[in-house]
């Protein structure tokens, strides 16, 4: 009996130990493996990190400080159109070229704008390591250091040309089949062929060369020699079914810094839904600053510094037109993305010590309407394209108009 009891106890212990060991190992391994694989698949499908690419054509928009033509009618930052081509000569090195064009009309000036062409060489400094680790293949998704040579032709009060050469640090991301976004900041030596700063014609600026630090943001479409990924789900980027009731939005800053000219743009917004309705309140403030240091030739050369500052808060009630339809079809969530329409109010404070204040309202308190489209990207970024117009209830000065209209394309981070 003792022997039989011992054998039964041993068998029972072995059975319990084996069952417990098998269950723990199987369950834990399966959960971790599946979760990790889902994350890897989603990341690769969105950012195309495992899609080999050697040729890429680029089309889209570039957002940069407006430092090459007269600052007038809030044109302290510019949105330009660009087309370019990049070729991967080696896994870590590429060469490319890009042409950018932009400009506009002011109430006191004719058309002002620029045409810019550049060539560059890029070193994707972490590409070799990522390929070796198996998390990347030879393509254009990565961080880089670049050497850039650029030529600009401008139309302002007088035509001008600018050449510059320098280095740039940036990051480029491909997403889905044809999406692309890029951020960069660079340091450049620049030379004006005609010997002046175009924005300083009235100050008789005579300095021909300068050093500058410039930021750049671009986004748009990309086409190349890659296979289309049929498994790339756009909702992995747009988070279609995500419910969102509020968000802080930080406008991606734009800067231009040199010894004679400085310009910066920043913005912050907060948006909150009203209950479960497709309504929200969006409060936003944008700020622009410009500083000019010039030399006045009045017998004896003297230096003069002047500043422009503009603060532009606004308040909107947004009705998202397609939210109910997306919920009904199951193609979207109750969030803050989509086409919107609603009343718009704003206040503009503008103070200038330069000639660019001629014909510009110093104060604006207005009400009107806004129409736009907003989309959250990756749950971490946003894109907001808006058209707004408001009537100024304050008494305008000479050459000033009652209506203030604006077209804005905002891109930044959600907090």
Q: Which structural class matches the secondary elements?
A: alpha+beta
Number of strands: 16
Specify the overall morphology. Answer: flat
Tell me the span between the first and last alpha carbons: 72 Å
Mean pLDDT: 77
CATH class category of the largest domain: Mainly Beta
Question: What fraction strand?
Answer: over 45%
What is the share of helical residues? 10-25%
SS summary, helix count:
4
CATH topology of the largest domain: Porin
Rg from alpha-carbon coordinates: 28 Å
Low-confidence stretches: 6-31, 34-40, 67-76
Corresponding CATH architecture of the largest domain: Beta Barrel
Total separate domains = 3
Keywords: Signal
Signal peptide: 1-18
Kindly summarize this structure in a few lines.
With 415 residues, the protein is of the alpha+beta class. The chain has helices spanning 2-47, 127-133, 235-238, 323-329; strands at residues 55-65, 77-90, 93-105, 111-123, 142-155, 160-175, 179-192, 209-224, 246-258, 261-273, 279-298, 300-320, 338-352, 363-377, 381-392, 403-414. It has three domains: 1-47; 50-232, Beta Barrel (Porin); 239-415, Porin.
Description:
The protein is of the alpha+beta class and 415 residues long. The protein has 3 domains: 47 residues; 183 residues, Porin (Beta Barrel); 177 residues, Porin (Beta Barrel). The protein has 4 helices and 16 strands. It is flat and about 65 Å long. The termini are far apart.
What are its keywords?
Porin; alpha+beta; 3 domains; 56% strand; 16-stranded antiparallel sheet; 415 residues
How are the SSEs placed, and which strands pair?
Elements: H1 2-47, E1 55-65, E2 77-90, E3 93-105, E4 111-123, H2 127-133, E5 142-155, E6 160-175, E7 179-192, E8 209-224, H3 235-238, E9 246-258, E10 261-273, E11 279-298, E12 300-320, H4 323-329, E13 338-352, E14 363-377, E15 381-392, E16 403-414
Antiparallel strand pairs: 1-2, 1-8, 2-3, 3-4, 4-5, 5-6, 6-7, 7-8, 8-9, 9-10, 9-16, 10-11, 11-12, 12-13, 13-14, 14-15, 15-16
């Amino acid at each position: 009996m003792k022997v039989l009891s011992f054998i039964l106890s041993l068998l029972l212990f072995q059975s319990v130990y084996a069952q417990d060991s098998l269950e723990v190992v199987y369950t834990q391994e399966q959960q971790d493996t599946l979760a990790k694989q889902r994350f890897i698949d989603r990341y690769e499908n969105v950012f195309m990190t495992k899609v080999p690419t050697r040729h890429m054509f680029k089309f889209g928009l570039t957002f940069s400080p407006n430092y090459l033509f007269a600052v007038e009618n809030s044109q302290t930052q510019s949105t330009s159109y660009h087309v370019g081509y990049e070729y991967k000569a080696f896994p870590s090195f590429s060469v490319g070229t890009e042409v950018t064009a932009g400009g506009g009309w002011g109430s006191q000036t004719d058309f002002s704008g620029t045409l810019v062409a550049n060539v560059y060489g890029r070193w994707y400094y972490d590409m070799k390591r990522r390929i070796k680790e198996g998390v990347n293949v030879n393509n254009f998704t990565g961080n880089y250091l670049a050497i850039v040579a650029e030529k600009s032709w401008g139309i302002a009060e007088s035509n001008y040309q600018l050449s510059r050469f320098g280095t740039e640090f940036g990051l480029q991301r491909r997403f889905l089949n044809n999406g692309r976004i890029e951020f960069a900041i660079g340091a450049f030596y620049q030379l004006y062929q005609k010997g002046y700063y175009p924005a300083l014609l009235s100050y008789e600026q005579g300095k021909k060369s300068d050093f500058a630090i410039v930021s750049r943001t671009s986004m748009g479409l990309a086409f190349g020699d890659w296979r289309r990924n049929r498994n790339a789900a756009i909702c992995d980027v747009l988070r279609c079914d995500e419910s969102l009731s509020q968000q802080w939005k930080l406008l991606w800053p734009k800067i231009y810094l040199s010894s004679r000219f400085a310009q910066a743009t920043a913005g912050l917004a907060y948006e909150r839904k009203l209950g479960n309705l497709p309504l929200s309140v969006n409060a936003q403030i944008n700020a622009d600053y410009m500083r000019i240091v010039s030399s006045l030739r009045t017998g004896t050369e003297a230096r003069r510094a002047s500043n422009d500052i503009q603060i532009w808060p606004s308040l909107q009630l947004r009705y998202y037109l397609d939210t109910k339809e997306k919920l009904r079809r199951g193609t979207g969530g109750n969030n803050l993305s989509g086409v919107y329409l609603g009343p718009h109010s704003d206040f503009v404070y503008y103070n200038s010590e330069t000639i660019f204040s001629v014909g510009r309202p110093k104060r604006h308190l207005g009400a009107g309407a806004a129409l736009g489209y907003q989309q959250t990207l990756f749950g971490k970024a946003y894109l907001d394209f808006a058209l707004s117009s408001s009537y100024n209830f304050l008494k305008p000065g000479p050459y000033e108009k009652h209506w203030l209209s604006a077209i804005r394309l905002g891109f930044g981070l959600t907090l």
